[in-house]
Amino acid sequence: MQRLFLSSRKVLTGREFHRWNRCFSHAAQKEASSLHDNGVAAADVVIPIPKIPHFDYSPPPYEGPSADEILAKRKEYLSPSMFCFYNKPLNVVDGKRQYLYDDTGRRYLDAFGGIATVCCGHCHPDVVDAIVTQTKRLQHSTILYLNRAIADFAEALASKLPGNLKVVFFTNSGTEANELAMMIARLYTGCHDIISLRNAYHGNAAGTMGATAQCNWKFNVVQTGVHHAQNPDPYRGVFGSDGEKYARDVQEIIDFGTSGSVAAFISEAIQGVGGIVELAPGYLPAAYSSVKKAGGLCIADEVQSGFGRTGSHFWGFETQGVVPDIVTMAKGIGNGIPLGAVVTTPEIAEVLTRRSYFNTFGGNPVCTAAGLAVLKVIEKEKLQENAFVVGSYLKDRLTALKDKYEVIGDVRGRGLMLGVELVTDRHLKTPAKAETLHIMDQMKDLGVLIGKGGYHGNVFRITPPLCFNKEDADFLVDALDYSMAKM
What GO molecular-function term can you cite, just one (predicted)? Predict the structure, then answer.
């Protein structure tokens, strides 16, 4: 057991103790409460090191190369742009549901989900079975021939979308999906100008790099025709949570930065790479209105927030009560299989018939079979509902932790797409980048893997598999609490 020391050694009052104690799991609360009732000082309360919940699975022994050997090969043969989390990179060799295992067999709670990608859980048997079964029959042919896998999945995917969004183009990634969506909008409207949001991330190819609005992710190459509107960030934005005030900037860009007509407006409902920033309420309806009046299309980037992750809705854009003209998606669509999609209306989709549009791997039978299996698992296991219940519980616990530590500036997001922003000064909102890296390493040592994001790299990104449960949530928060207490 490790002793947890608070800033004061006095016996806390009832209200002070309750505020401190409610940040811990029920077992730890019960132990601390018993000691407090007997007049033990808070600084002398013994809190156990958080323990990972029981899970009935043991991976087979790992017999591959060591982490050092793999790292050496990466440095010699892979792009030097690749980087790893943690001071000592983790060698992940096995996964099951919401857990990952390293080369020693140690289990970790995966609260990052492969960057909001693993929605059903690692190696879900239904998804694995669909992949293996299809691979045994036909791994690849071409969409120039008929195959039921692509048609069945397209039908099932269209059924999850509102309005007349029913025509699907399959891609291999979210970047590729956004590239295609932007091209479709330009072709359909005959305009070139696209409006994106500051702090957005839409990919790192030629067109999407222009729409991405963080210098961290932009190379000095030609990027034209994209205007970046003020970000409706409730925490750091100048208008707080007033979405309509931020949306005025979209209209001003149209009036003063374009010919008065635009091709499209593209946005995430919750910015993932940007640090789990949920757009201010009322923003998208107002922004969409201005764009449509200017003849533009509205593109919803659902690469991270789609497929039930927000809990309250299947798609992130639904949280703002809008219906886009084009929806892009990837990541959770295949539970880790390289797969993306663009969904739009029959009228808009018609523009690609002006020339030949083709994608060799878009609609690959193995990938689309996996995608269909993912949709079935989400429904069968009620993963969207679980994301809402567990995500709400987790957010409440994280918010309680904010009352305890000044370093936590903001807790935000919804469902199982949550962010915790760390600052060294709450009033100035000074990013606590070094503290973020330190705590990430500490949590990894305790058995919890989380991501980070935001322009300053000071936001914990919590995007676990949607099978995450309340025990996992307790372990995550207790590990975060424990790590912060030791700083």
Answer: pyridoxal phosphate binding
Q: For residue 399, give both structure tokens.
A: 């918010």
264-268 vs 194-197, strand pairing mode:
parallel
Task: Give the C-alpha separation, 303 to 178, whole Å.
Answer: 9
**465, amino acid identity:** P
Ranges for all domains in the chain classified under CATH 3.40.640.10: 125-381
For residue 158, give every residue at least 6 positions away whose Cβ sits within 8 Å of its Cβ, in sequence order, or none: 165, 166, 167, 168, 343
- 290/295 Cα distance (integer angstroms): 9
State the Cα–Cα distance between residues 25 and 477, nearest whole angstrom: 8
Which uninterrupted H or E stretch holds 261?
A: none
pLDDT of residue 13: 45
Spell out where 189-296 has E strands: 194-197, 226-229, 264-268, 270-271, 277-278
Structural contact between residues 419 and 410, judged by C-beta atoms closer than 8 angstroms: yes
Note the CATH architecture for domain 125-381: 3-Layer(aba) Sandwich (3.40)
Q: Kindly report the number of other CB atoms within 10 A of residue 253's CB atom.
A: 21
User: For residue 178, how many other CB atoms are within 10 A of its CB?
Assistant: 29
b/e string for 442-466 if b means 16 or more Cβ within 10 A? bbbebbbbbbbbbbbbbbbbbbbbb
Task: Give the per-residue pLDDT at 34.
Answer: 52
The CATH number of 67-119+383-485 is: 3.90.1150.10
In 3D space, the residue among 158, 221, 225 whose CA is nearest the CA of residue 191 turns out to be: 225
| The predicted structure's pLDDT at residue 15 | 45
Q: Which residues of the chain register pLDDT less than 70?
A: 1-47
